[in-house]
Amino acid sequence: MSMIRFEVSAGVASLTLDRPAAFNALDTSGILELSAIAAELAQRRDVRAVLITGSGNKAFCAGGDVSTFVRESDRVGTLLQEMTDPLNIAVARLMRLDAPVIAAVNGVAAGVGLSLVALSDLAIAADSARFTTAYTQIGYTPDGGSSWLLPRLVGQRRAMELYLTGRTLNAAEALDWGLVNQVVAPEALEESARSLAERIARGPTGAYGKVKSLLLETLANPLEAQLALEARTIIAQSQTNDGREGVRAFVEKRTPDFRGG
């Protein structure tokens, strides 16, 4: 049985984590499914935005399925290896898609659920959403890129606070800390996120992908290296179909017709 509903419409790939009875927690099967979808997205030219949300109104994703850690306690190390290997591949692929990834956070985002929010390029939260790392509360340590992503979003001190205290942020705090871009009423979340995703899907997907790559490199590069990378990137993008179309549309004072190339 599928744990993730996956469909593509109007250039938007929608991924809905679909285990509401388990707060949309991911077990090994769910992670393998996520990894397979991420691999497919990396190959699809018709996908120009990705929208991730959870089923129901209680949870976006409560993290890994902790009940399996108890049931398989005699092989928990092996189990975690089986989970983290495909999870790591999925995280890296999602972050490196040209298509921007948007999280619509409809409830609790904990553990790897928080990682999915953090890896997204944009995030909209219902005002009922809650955010927590959760790992140290069960005596575990972060996974899913959490320890790489959170310090870059909220800073080292605040990331450490989340890990050491188990603090849960409400939606307003997540907005203030920079974890999400916007907070809306729960009943407005689906429409707001879908509208944003469709608008992004009409944009210059290749340029978006290059922007994502530049921002991923910026903290690792010295200024001169980043300047050189920016120069190479803008030169390359100027020679694409979308680059040419954008300039023509600007000069002709019309809305550009970007095709993603």
Automatic annotation (TrEMBL):
GO molecular function terms noted in the UniProt entry: lyase activity
Segments crossing the lipid bilayer: none
Record-linked CDD domains: crotonase-like (cd06558)
UniProt keyword terms in alphabetical order: Lyase
GO biological process, one term: fatty acid beta-oxidation
Membrane recorded as keyword: no
Tagged with keyword Translocase: no
Source domain of life: Bacteria
Entry's family note: Belongs to the enoyl-CoA hydratase/isomerase family.
Full protein name: Enoyl-CoA hydratase
Organismal lineage: Bacteria, Pseudomonadati, Pseudomonadota, Betaproteobacteria, Neisseriales
